[in-house]
Prior knowledge:
The protein is an alpha/beta fold and 239 residues long. The protein is built from 8 helices and 9 strands.
Amino acid sequence: MERGLVIVPTYNEIKNLRQIVPQILAQDPSLDVLVVDDNSPDGTGQAADELAQESGRVHVLHRPGKEGLGTAYRAGFRWALARDYEFVFEMDADFSHDPKHLPQFLDAIRDADLVLGCRYLGGRVTVVNWPMARLFLSYSANIYARVVTGLRLHDATGGYKCFRRRVLEAIDIDAVRSNGYAFQIEVSFRAARKGFRIIEIPIVFVDRTDGESKMSGAIVREAVWMVWRLRLLALLGRL
């Protein structure tokens, strides 16, 4: 049986983590969970350890401090590749990504190399509880990324993904520079440049009800300039 690993980065997500990990495991027996915790002061790391003691399918990677989303996923990717997982997922801990979509990803990845959960597929917007300003920012950012990079994706900034291991082996994850939401654009761009087949599937994105959003002005600014860097590297033949 081909195994999958769901990587869940955490920082102060203790309430959500205790609920979401069992729901992930319930979706398919081939799925394990890796919690990558950045030394959360609310005890998320300890809660993750307790979940790991309860199930051999739960694993924890402790980091010394808050280092950002991109570095958390890169660490998780390296962990997954070292342990021969065939499918590697990105997933938020705050229930904005519904675990019930995981079987759809497993079905779709059979015919693809990278599957993206899309909030804006076919002209439909499937986002719940977002303020209009946040929705406008996200939708506009995707148009901007598509125009600058040429990526033919409806939702390049989304963070609900499933990779085949060969994608992560090919794109040189240590060369990925982005650390915020631009990380999502960059890994998809690198995968597309390598010729991997990328497909999008519809998901419903629900804004968090517990905890605080990690969005910041610095994350937005990084995304603005990073797409131009990717385009330049591609033009120079360095991607």
